[in-house]
Design a protein that fits this description.
Elements lengths: L18 E9 L4 E22 L3 E6 L9 E3 L9 E18 L7 E4 L11 E4 L20 E10 L3 E4 L2 E6 L11 H5 L4 E12 L6 E4 L1 E7 L2 E6 L2 H10 L3 H12 L8 E4 L8 E2 L4 E4 L10 H10 L7 E3 L5 H20 L1 H21 L25 H17 L1 H15 L2 E3 L1 H11 L3 H4 L2 H6 L13 H12 L8 H4 L4 H10 L6 H11 L7 H13 L6 H10 L3 H13 L4 H14 L5 H14 L1
Parallel strand pairs: 1-8, 14-15, 15-17, 18-19
Antiparallel strand pairs: 1-2, 2-5, 3-5, 4-5, 6-7, 7-12, 8-11, 9-12, 10-11, 13-14, 16-17
This protein binds ligand BES and zinc ion.
The site of ligand BES has 15 residues, from strand 16 and helix 4.
């Protein structure tokens, strides 16, 4: 037994599956998927092979040629982080067929009833597999060290359609008898059903597997980009407008990082419960609707998910312990794209917001400094619980430091070569360092690589950005303590990100009367920009302003993006000596829980159990 990843039962002495062929029958009334998965190995294998599984009911494992059962066992206890080990014993097979069903509590899946959607008439279901949730949709070697191609047939009610992180092949009626013999409904409701076929022919890590099923429509926004969303004209129109600049960003990405290898670059806007800002599912990026603000600021999130097409999806971290290779590189690449399409000031502002976030997370992890490192040890740790700015912003700072050392033209060359060298591979930090040292001789004498990778905290040669606008905002925030509020003429040009930076830089412990005065002047609690509104509400809670509790509750019930849930629930739960805040946190979570994605439910539970 030689584990390859602390978050997986995958064994390095077993072969890696290279292809999976999935048939998925969606049963909306029971929130389950009845499925079969044909896994293919590079060559025939005899002996055990371990797969990850969570909340799956396994019915059978067969030899696909002879249809004879193959012995399998499912570890009886589900590990709270890894789930269950499904071990199948092969005797010279190069493929095997598993039939199984998901459960309504599958951690990757959110099943939305019609009232939870925009159009209110039909149900919706979607996946979020990163970091370790693919195993709750199908059994697999759920580690980013593995790369797998897939094909999928999704059998759905006819009124719905599907999108996937894959090429769309066909939409057709089910073939007679197609479906699963164990599922009667598949046979007698065939005329109400449709099958959508997809194929992903480039090998991807399992966390990039994704689908969404619902009443989905699209608008064209570029030669290789459509924006998909629920079929509500206002949502589709707003999304199409917001993302009109996507093709220009793809071109800039190609100029900076090399060819875009995935064919199409489509976007899917999800219902408000989507737990992230964006998820880089290949060919079909998933986005929260909160980025649609009518001021083109959603472009930053798109730039980030697009950048993953090179850093993350082409070159992937081998395990979550090297997560900074995915997110640090992507944050760097995102800012290079933003710099070209939105200007240097905007990029500096983003660096500044990131710098603030990084400093805050250093405080958050003061009693657990392991998670302030770039390379982390994650045995026994749930990746969802330690999600933070560190891999993003410390990773960004590290790469920016190298750029400053060798100058931009040389760094750009280096990046292109790095991507071309490792594309379609999963690598670890050590492989990156070896490549760096081989291609930038002597770099270890200029930069203390060990401090950057294995050290805790922020290295002394990290850099707070300098730009007129950034510096002005930070100093205005510091002056607030002395009772000086920014004047109308000073904020006249401010957009959401300027306010976000301002609010996040306000000194701790300001009086509730000052917070209320700021809001009376600038109406931040009603701001349409969620980042601003949430930053303000967080400040209001920690300053003890009870009058904003109604707005806090409304916000927590309207969106499920964890970037907003985390700070608001944490502020409520931490409100010392304010029982009202703690009671509110518990009650709102009880009432809103069902509307959150299972991953967000887990994260909020962890926050509340830590503080209450
Ligand atoms: N891949 C991440 C989202 C993610 C990370 C999901 C870890 C599950 C586990 C995505 O690319 C991301 O970073 N999204 C950010 C966007 C932002 C940095 C522009 C988000 O959701 O806020
Ligand atoms: Zn990312």
């Amino acid at each position: 037994m030689a584990p390859v990843d602390p978050h997986s039962f995958t064994d390095s002495t077993h072969p890696f599956a290279t292809h999976i062929s999935l048939s998925l029958y969606f049963n909306f009334p029971s929130s389950t998927i009845h499925s079969s998965a044909l896994l293919t190995l590079p060559s025939p294998h005899s002996g055990p092979i371990s797969l990850d599984a969570r909340s799956l009911a396994i019915s059978s494992v067969l030899d696909p040629q002879t249809l004879t059962p193959l012995p399998f066992s499912l570890s009886p206890n589900s590990d709270p982080i890894k789930g269950q080990n499904l071990t199948i014993t092969l005797s010279n097979q190069s493929s095997f067929l598993i039939t199984f069903s998901t459960s309504p509590s599958s951690s990757a899946l959110q099943w939305l009833s019609p009232p939870q959607t925009f159009n209110k008439t039909l149900p919706f279901v979607y996946t979020q597999c990163q970091s370790i949730h693919a195993r709750s949709v199908f059994p697999c070697q759920d580690t980013p060290a593995a790369r797998i191609c897939y094909s999928a047939r999704l059998n759905l009610p006819r009124q719905l359609s599907a999108v996937m992180s894959a090429a769309h092949i066909d939409r057709r009626p089910p073939i007679l008898g197609e479906g699963l013999s164990s599922c009667d409904e598949a046979l007698w409701c065939a005329e109400d059903r449709v099958v959508e076929e997809f194929a992903m022919e480039q090998p991807i890590p399992p966390y990039l597997f994704a689908f969404a099923v619902g009443e989905i429509n699209y608008r064209e926004v570029g030669p290789r980009t459509r924006v998909y969303a629920e079929s509500v004209p206002a949502v589709l129109d707003a999304a199409a407008k917001e993302f009109a600049g996507t093709e220009e960003m793809i071109r800039q990405g190609e100029r900076l990082f090399g060819p875009y290898e995935w064919g199409r670059f489509d976007l899917l806007v999800l219902p408000p419960s989507f737990p992230y800002g964006g998820m880089e599912n290949p060919r079909m990026v998933f986005l929260t609707p909160t980025v649609i603000r009518g001021d083109a600021s959603g472009a930053q999130v798109v730039a980030h998910e697009l950048a993953h097409s090179w850093t993350g999806n082409l070159i992937t971290n081998k395990t979550n312990e090297d997560f900074w290779l995915n997110e640090g590189f992507t944050t760097y690449a995102e800012r290079r794209i933003v710099e070209v399409v939105q200007g240097e000031d905007r990029a500096a502002l983003n660096i500044g917001i990131g710098w603030r976030g990084l400093n805050e997370d250093m405080e958050r992890f003061h009693d657990n400094m392991e998670f302030t490192k770039l390379k982390t040890r994650q045995e026994g740790v749930d990746p969802d619980d330690i999600y933070s700015h560190v891999p993003y912003e410390k990773g960004f700072q590290f790469l920016w430091r190298i750029e400053r050392q060798i100058c931009r033209p040389a760094f750009d060359e280096f990046l292109k070569k790095y991507i071309a060298t490792f594309k379609f591979q999963s690598i670890d930090t050590e492989m990156f360092l070896d490549f760096l040292k081989a291609n930038v001789p002597g770099i270890e004498k200029e930069i203390d690589l060990d401090v950057w990778i294995h050290g805790t905290g922020i290295p002394p040669d990290a850099l707070e950005p300098v730009s007129t606008i950034y510096t002005k905002i930070v100093s205005l925030a510091t002056e607030f303590k002395l009772g000086r509020m920014p004047r109308e003429d000073e904020v006249a040009e401010w957009r959401g990100q300027e306010w976000e930076l301002y609010l996040e830089n306000l000194p701790k412990g300001i009086e509730s009367s000052q917070v209320a005065a700021l809001d009376a002047r600038y109406r931040l609690s009603e701001c349409k920009d969620w980042e601003v509104k949430v930053a303000f509400l967080q400040l209001a809670i920690s300053s003890g302003c009870r009058e904003y509790f109604v707005e806090v509750e409304k916000t927590l019930k309207e969106v499920g993006r964890m970037k907003y849930l985390r700070p608001l629930y944490t502020a409520l739960a931490q409100a010392t000596g304010n029982d009202e805040a703690k009671i509110l946190a518990k009650r709102v979570f009880m009432e809103a829980r069902e509307c959150y994605h299972p991953i967000a439910q887990g994260v909020v539970e962890t926050i509340l159990s830590k503080h209450l």
